[in-house]
Design a protein that fits this description.
Helix content: 40-55%
Radius of gyration: 18 Å
Strand order of the largest sheet: 3-2-1-4-5-6-7
Mean pLDDT: 96
Low-confidence stretches: none
CATH architecture: 3-Layer(aba) Sandwich
Bound molecules: NADPH dihydro-nicotinamide-adenine-dinucleotide phosphate
Shape: globular
Strand content: 5-15%
CATH class: Alpha Beta
Largest sheet: 7 strands, parallel
């Protein structure tokens, strides 16, 4: 029970990496609010976790591109639990945003709209969730902010300028915030996964396969071959790193960006 009675908020906690983090934090004794747009999915998840016991998993609707919804979501957490120890800024979107006219992005694709959505979700949403939550973090050394960046916050990939810009931005945001919140005893770290087996990765594989003119299976085989450890990461592996950073073990670690990518990036 490494997080007994800590209060955590996980944005985008209904599937993929966010769900794995929320599940592990909950199992380690935390009260966990999960917040995303698809509230039905969150409610199903909460029903599973809350069976037969205390109601420590709270599903909340929140589109992180909407300042008003963030305010209401954080307000609900405070009304119920009175504090926030851990914020996991996990909500994120990806997609192609090629710069050159005519580059293939699929039928009906609009790179400009995609750019706005990616920056609004991955960067501005993170900033606003942090601004609303940080003021409710108590002193005493339990305050933690975990920001989902990516190995695409460390290097570029052609066609993914908006996503790479947002994830590089997350690392800069993390460093500045770590210094700003250090006097309050709150730590701030970024997680930089490589390919993680989730819906987002499946979409990335499908899009990559179309661009490369190969099957999704072949594209995935090539992607795995570029990872020194030769495989995609499981969401549960990201959750275990998040738990380490959120627990007392992580108390002196701040301003860092942690690669979790089978050795794809070494800086
Ligand atoms: P998924 O696409 O599986 O899940 C994304 C989550 O974000 C969903 O829960 C979704 O919920 C939520 N979300 C998206 N937009 C919004 C929004 N506007 N407001 C609130 N919630 C939103 O992705 P992953 O689990 O793979 O990714 C999680 C994080 O990890 C992201 O930040 C991603 O960039 C990062 N990452 C992922 C990698 C991968 O290979 N999978 C690699 C490196 C980083 P809903 O639709 O209900 O709103």
């Amino acid at each position: 029970m490494l997080l007994r009675d800590r209060v955590a908020v996980v944005t985008g906690g209904g599937r993929g990496i966010g769900k794995a983090i929320a599940t592990l934090f909950h199992a380690e004794g935390a009260k966990v609010a999960v917040a995303s747009r698809n509230v039905k999915g969150l409610q199903t998840f909460a029903l599973e976790r809350n069976q037969g016991g205390e109601h420590r998993l709270l599903p909340l609707r929140c589109d992180v591109t909407r300042a008003d919804e963030i305010e209401v979501m954080i307000g609900n957490v405070i009304e119920l639990w009175d504090r926030i120890d851990i914020l996991v800024n996990n909500a994120g979107v990806s997609g192609l945003t090629p710069i050159l006219p005519g580059a293939e992005t699929g039928p009906g694709a609009d790179p400009d709209r995609m750019w706005q959505e990616i920056i609004a979700t991955n960067l501005t949403g993170m900033y606003r969730c942090t601004r609303e939550a940080a003021r409710h973090m108590p002193g005493g050394g339990t305050g933690r902010i975990l920001n989902l960046s990516s190995v695409l916050g460390k290097f570029g990939v052609p066609g993914y300028a908006a996503y790479c810009a947002s994830k590089h931005g997350v690392i800069g945001f993390t460093k500045a915030l770590a210094l700003e919140l250090a006097p309050k005893g709150v730590t701030v770290n970024a997680l930089c996964p490589g390919w993680v087996d989730t819906e987002m990765a499946a979409q990335g594989v499908a899009a990559g396969a179309v661009r490369a003119g190969v099957s999704p299976e072949e594209f995935r085989r090539r992607a795995e071959a570029q990872v020194p450890l030769g495989r995609f990461v499981a969401p549960e592996e990201v959750a275990r790193l998040a738990l380490f950073l959120a627990s007392d073990a992580g108390a002196s670690i701040t301003g860092q960006s942690w690669n979790l990518d089978g050795g794809a990036a070494m800086w």
